[in-house]
Specification:
The complex is a heterotetramer, with two copies of chain A and two copies of chain B. Chain A is of the alpha/beta class. Helix content of chain A is 21%, strand content 28%. Chain A has helices spanning 9-12, 34-42, 62-67, 86-92, 103-115, 178-184, and strands at 5-6, 21-24, 48-51, 71-76, 97-100, 119-122, 136-139, 142-147, 152-162, 168-169, 185-195, 215-218. In chain A, strands 1, 2, 3, 4, 5, 9, 10, 11 and 12 form a nine-stranded mixed β-sheet that branches. In chain A, strands 6-8-7 form a three-stranded antiparallel β-sheet. In chain A, α5 (103-115) packs across α6 (178-184). In chain B, strands 4-3-2-1-5-8-10-11-12-13 form a ten-stranded mixed β-sheet, sandwiched between helices. In chain B, strands 7-6-9 form a three-stranded mixed β-sheet, with no helix packed on it. In chain B, 14% of the residues lie in helices and 31% in strands. Chain B is of the alpha/beta class. In chain B, α2 runs parallel beside α3. Chain B has a single domain, classed as 3-Layer(aba) Sandwich (Glutaconate Coenzyme A-transferase), CATH 3.40.1080. Classes of the chains: A alpha/beta, B alpha/beta. Chains in contact: A-B, A-C, A-D, B-C, C-D. Chain C binds chain D through residues 27-31, 53, 55, 57, 76-81, 87-88, 91-92, 98, 100-105, 107-108, 110-111, 122-130, 171-180, 207, and chain D through 47-51, 64-68, 72, 77, 83-87, 90, 93-94, 113, 118, 123-133, 136-137, 163-167.
Chain lengths: 222, 223, 222, 223
């Protein structure tokens, strides 16, 4: 019987190592897998590379990892949040590498990683510093920048429901980067509000099909 | 010198948004535009984190932490609203499906270049968010901005000195002094606030201005 | 008030011309907008370019347009269906131009057209005749073919429900190419089983958001 | 000469599909594989038109014209099944998320090239469907084929003469005479049907064969 459900963080994080690349879903706090990130913190992993829209928000998850200097690099579109100073301080002190990627390009690069696309031409960032060093190509009279896929060792996702095959639904705008990151990582680990029986999710309403999911764990918001 | 308040600028922008438009409102001043849309006008608000048909701020106590806008503030969905994931949401933007986006600006050039994401100060981490995608993807890019910086430097320029967000993308500027179209490498003044002369506007602008033949007074209610 | 509902085929087909490029959804008969296609037939339009997975199936829609020689070219992955000879006959007689595109590339090219992507590198068709004349690029040691976007004047789609903003749901595997074609056409015309009130479709269950839809018409299966 | 029926080949393929695998079964003979999966083995069947968790043919009268497989035949969904649109379905395929796909073949070369979509007859319109995406995207490409064409020509060759579907993609061939891995530019025979000598197999194969040290008899039930 296929059963992707796990019941503790040690099982959820099986295979985690220092230096791992982790895609962390969430836009601000919505959809952020705070408990999974904090389980990584508790287990002492370091030198992590994080791919996430923001380099943390509030006082949870990524912010805690940043404060404990466990993160070597963040690939993101917008690193700072209004209520956290730690990213600015680490950056100013040269203790944090940042790769800034426009939000749509970030998402599309992860999709490419998950969908087997070797690269794509986007009009976003043409003639800006974020296109420096990148190939620019004129197609039908318009300029585009060549961007390459992003993949990761792990994707951490927060979802609403999961069944034992790993089919997922999300809660409103907490959907965010989850469906894309699930495609792009070697191992996709999901914390969900609740498990449901196989067949309970309408086939037309599955947002992330289980094929993209490796482990699901029921986590109560803490 | 006569100048508009932020609310008055937002009001003026709102008048230019037609029935049925799909509109993305940037973080900050652009968010205020929604408050001045006429009640009988149906406009569909997009938020790049996956909302289409975004509604007003919920009443206190009814906020849902999983229903937020691009500024990470609690919002609602109107009837007919829908959710998409980030990649699909940016496909909408990049694919040219958003009719109008309204953004703030550090600088705008007469060729429509927009600088609104980074200054020349390298001590702070830069952050671009969705601005570059919106700048290049929306059919019309409206900019809300003060005409000058706080220390009096012009923000409308021949050429931007700050790093660009997008090149040749701005279609119209709504400043606290004027409504200016950006077309054919020129700033074309369509409306100018009361009691401000053409000469005074030229003095606070860092590029040549063309005054439209039918240039009128920029009038707004007191807001 | 935004209202994308129309009540007759003349309104649905507003702007149609001879020589128009039409994306026609459907995989076989599932999701095929037969009645919209036949309304085009009835109105005499010709020299049409069709983008569709199949060049017709059964005796309806595209097959009828083919029989009446209204179609100049079909861009598709699989032109022939088991129960129709017309495509074979027209092709053998030199009366039909075919552009064969692998199914996933066909779909991805339409997505690129709708998503503002100027081109993408796909591993599909490398070292096959379908890559002839196309740029091949080695990325991270793997070969990819450069493919360009597909767009169209019209997309014809069959969906289950639509509201007056054009939000759509689909019926099971009739979803098919609909959501992608809706993004990629200048005008997206949808025939639906039934209209619903605005707000009746759960925001999380909208499959095609109305931003991609121009006109919706209730059409009883005929 | 000893040879397997199509059903026996399908049975043999089914034995190699592990619990939990995501599997795409091509149109025709590959579809039969599903009939021989052990009842206690959970395998998730993908159909490229957007089904994941495809179930068996529905009972007569319960067919839904909007629930069909890649072969356009009525099917069902099992509990846990899901629907996606075509672009998402092919993202699954191209992105390497399908563990095994089973395809038919006109020709297979010792370097794993697959030809299964077009012959050299240009009078008929060619059709490729999803075969090229599956060939290049699936982690393992299993081929079900007769060892020779109806007129006795070998289908396992040094080099394909027909237009390719994919290059270097086939991982294993299940013919009516043998089970052959394709690796390091060689056909490696793992199993051979009863009463067929190595020499006889070589004679009907258009490329060199390597017999594995642990090559065994290919046994199936009577089907």
């Amino acid at each position: 019987m296929i059963d992707k459900r796990v019941y503790d963080f040690d099982s959820a994080l099986d295979g985690m190592t220092d230096g791992a690349t982790i895609m962390s879903a969430g836009f601000g706090a919505a959809g952020a897998p705070q408990e999974l990130l904090e389980a990584v913190l508790d287990r002492g992993y370091r030198d992590l590379v994080i791919i996430s829209n923001n380099a943390g928000e509030g006082e949870r998850g990524l912010i805690r990892l940043l404060k404990e200097k466990r993160i070597a690099k963040v690939v993101c579109s917008f690193p700072t949040s209004s209520n956290s100073e730690v990213t600015k301080e680490l950056y100013a002190a040269g203790l944090l590498e940042l790769e800034i990627v426009p939000q749509g390009t970030l998402s599309e690069r992860m999709r490419a990683g998950g969908a087997g696309i070797g690269g794509f031409y986007t009009p976003t960032s043409v003639n800006t510093p974020l296109a420096e060093g990148k190939e620019v190509r004129t197609i039908d009279g318009k300029d585009y920048v060549l961007e390459f896929p992003l993949t990761a060792d792990f994707a951490f996702i927060k979802a609403r429901e999961a069944d034992r095959w790993g089919n997922l639904t999300y809660n409103l705008s907490a959907r965010g980067f989850g469906p894309t990151m699930a495609m792009a990582a070697k191992a996709t680990i999901v914390q969900v509000d609740r498990f449901v029986e196989l067949g309970e999710i309408d086939p037309e309403q599955v947002i992330t099909p289980g094929i993209y999911v490796d482990r699901v764990m029921e986590v109560e918001a803490s | 010198m006569a100048k508009l308040t932020r609310k008055q600028i937002a009001w003026r922008v709102a008048q230019d948004i037609p029935e049925g438009a799909y509109v993305n409102l940037g973080i900050g001043a652009p968010e205020m535009v929604v408050n001045y849309l006429p009640d009988d006008r149906e406009v569909i608000i997009h938020s790049e984190n996956g909302l289409l048909g975004m509604g007003p701020t919920p009443p206190p106590g009814e906020e849902n932490p999983d229903l937020i806008n691009a500024g990470k503030k609690p919002v609602t969905l109107v009837d007919g609203g829908s959710i998409s994931h980030h990649t699909d949401s940016f496909a909408m933007i990049r694919g040219g499906h958003i009719d109008i986006c309204v953004l703030g600006a550090f600088q705008v050039s007469q060729s429509g270049d927009l600088a609104n994401w980074a200054t020349l100060d390298n001590s702070r981490p830069p952050g671009v968010g969705g601005a570059m995608d919106l700048a290049v993807g929306a059919k019309n890019v409206f900019v809300i901005t003060d005409h000058c910086t706080r220390d009096g430097q012009p923000k409308l320029l021949e050429k931007c000195s700050y790093p660009l967000t997008g090149s040749g993308v701005v279609t119209r500027v709504y400043s606290d002094h004027a409504l200016i179209d950006v077309r054919d490498n020129s700033f074309i003044v369509r409306e100018i606030v009361e009691d401000l002369s053409e000469e005074e506007l030229r003095e606070i602008t860092g590029a040549a201005l063309v005054f439209a033949d039918d240039c009128v007074t920029l009038k707004t209610p007191d807001l």
